[in-house]
Amino acid sequence: MFSLILTMTSGLFQFLQFPGRSNKLFVMHFLRIRSIFIGFLALVISLPILALIASWLEWNSSSAQVLLEMLQTVLPNYISTSLWLCIGVAIGVSLLGTMTAAAVTLFKFPGQSFFEWALLLPMAIPAYVVAYAYTDFFQFSGPFQNFIRTTWEIEGRVFPEIRSLGGAIWVFTLALYPYVYLLARTALSERASHLMEAARLLGAPLSRRIIRVALPLARPAIAAGVALALMETLADYGVSSYFGIQTFTAGIYKSWLVLDNRIAAAQLASLLLLVVMLLLQIEKSAQSRMRFSNVKLSGTASREAQQIQLSRRQAWLVCIACSLPILFGFILPIGFMLKPLFSSEVSIPWDRFIDWSLNSLQLGAATALLAVGVALLLSFSLRQKNHLFSRVTTNLVGLGYAVPGAVVVVGLLLPVTWLQQQWPDSKIGFWLTATSLGLIWAYLVRFCAVALQSVQSGYARIPVSLDDSSRMLGVSGLGLLQQIHAPLLKRSVAAAALLVFVDVMKELPVTLVLRPFNTDTLAVVAYQLARDERLGEAALPSLALVLAGLLPVILLSRSMKKS
Prior knowledge:
Layout: H1 2-16, H2 24-54, H3 61-72, H4 75-106, E1 107-108, H5 112-118, H6 127-138, H7 143-152, H8 165-201, H9 206-235, H10 238-243, H11 248-258, H12 262-288, H13 299-304, E2 308-309, H14 312-341, H15 350-384, H16 388-397, H17 405-422, H18 428-433, H19 437-460, H20 464-472, H21 478-506, H22 509-514, H23 522-531, H24 535-562
Parallel strand pairs: 1-2
Helix pairs in contact: 1-15, 1-21, 2-12, 2-16, 2-17, 2-19, 3-12, 4-8, 4-9, 4-11, 4-14, 6-8, 6-14, 6-24, 8-9, 9-12, 11-12, 12-17, 14-24, 15-16, 15-19, 15-21, 17-19, 19-21, 21-24, 23-24
C-alpha cells in the first residue's frame, strides 16, 4: 500500500514540479499553477465546512420560522439531553481513564504489563456495537432478566432500561475512556514516578502524593482526553438513534429529512460545529501544556524512582479495578454477540456478508489512498516552504477533524443542492449522491485530518538539517521525497492509511445518508439489523468491525511499548 501511495504522490509531484531551471519566468508560472492546484484541493476538501458557515448568509423567514418552532418545542430537549450526556460521559471517562492510567503507571502489581495494553481493547469496539450487545443481553426479553425472573420468580422489569440516557452514558464511558487513559498514562510515565519518590522522601503520604503531584501532572492530559471523548460523543449517531435519545444530532437530521429545510439544518449543524471547535481548542490548549523535561535521569536516580510496591490486598484491589473496564468494555460485549451468532435460530447470510465486507474494504482502501496522498502532498509542500499559504491550506484540510458526520453530510449536500438548482442538466447531484464519489468526498472531509496528523508527526521526527544536507549533495524536489523522506516515513504513512481505513469502515452517519443504492457496508447493515431487533444477525457484521478495530489498537500498543 505504501508503494502505491508513494507512486501516486510522486506522479502528482512530477506533474506539479517543473524539471527545468533555465526559464525563470516559466518556473514562476508553473509554481503558481502548483499553488493554485494545492489551494483548490484544500478548498474542495473543506467546502462542506465552509458551506455551513456561509449558510447564515442565506437567512430567510422560512428557516427562521423552523428554528423558532424548534426552539419553542424540541430544541431545548435536544440541548438538555446532549448537555447531560456530555456531563455524564465527561465524569465517567475522566474517572475511569485517570484511575487506570495511575494504576499501571504509579504502582507495581502482578499483571501490570498485561493491563498496560489490555486497557486499550475497548477502543476496538465502536460505541454503537457495544450498545447492540448490551441491549440484546439486558433488555426486558433478554437472557439476563429472563434468568432473574425464572430463578427468583420475579415479575416485571428487574433491571433499569438500557435504552436510556443512563445506558448511553454507560456505553460511551466504556467505549471512550481509553482516550483519557492513553494521554494520562503518557503524561504520568514521563516524570511521575521520580517526582512522587521525591515527595515521599520529603515525608508526604501516598494520598497526598497522588493528589498534589500525580493529578496536577496529568491534568492537561485528562482535559485533552475528555475533550476528545466529548467530540466522539457529539459526533455519534448510532447509539443515540438506537437508544431513542433526542440529541442535537437528531435535531439536525430531523430538520433536513423531516422538515425539509436545508438552511435550518445547516444552521443547527454550524452551532454543533461551533461546540466541537471549542472542544478542539480546549484539547489543543491542553496538549500544548503537556511539556515535560527530557533530561535523562542518572542510573542511581532512575533506580530510586521505582514504582510503588503494593501489598497483596492492595494488588488484588488494583487488579480488580483494572479488570472491570476490560470486562464490561470488551469481553462481555464480545461474548454477548458470539452467543446469538452461533444460535441455531440465526442463519448467517455468508454471500451477502461478503458483499458488505467488499463494499467496506473498497471504500476504506480508496479513501485511505486518497487521504494519505493528500496528506503527503500538503506535508511535503509545507516542509519545502513554510509560508502563510501552505499553513492556510493545511489548516483548511484539518478543519474536518472530529467534525460530526451529520455536520459533514449537511455541509456537503448544501453546495450540491445549490449547483443542481443552478444547472439542472449538469447531473452533479446524480454523480455525488448516486455513486460513491460523494461518499468518498465526505470521508475525505472527515478523515484527511487523521492522515495529515500522522504524516506530520512523521515529518517532525526528520531533522530539517537532513534536507539541507541533501540539497548540498544535489538532491532536491521530488528526489528529496523519494530518496530521503520516503524510507523515514514508511511507518507514519502505514499508520495513517490504517487509521483512515478503519475509521471509514466504522463510520455510520455519513454512510447511512450518502451511500448509493445497493452499497451497504458492515456498519450500515449492523445498524439496520439491530434497529429491526435482529440482533443475532447483526452480530456478524458487528464482530467484523471489532476485528478491524483491533488492528490500530495492536499498532498503538506496540508503539507504546517501543516508546
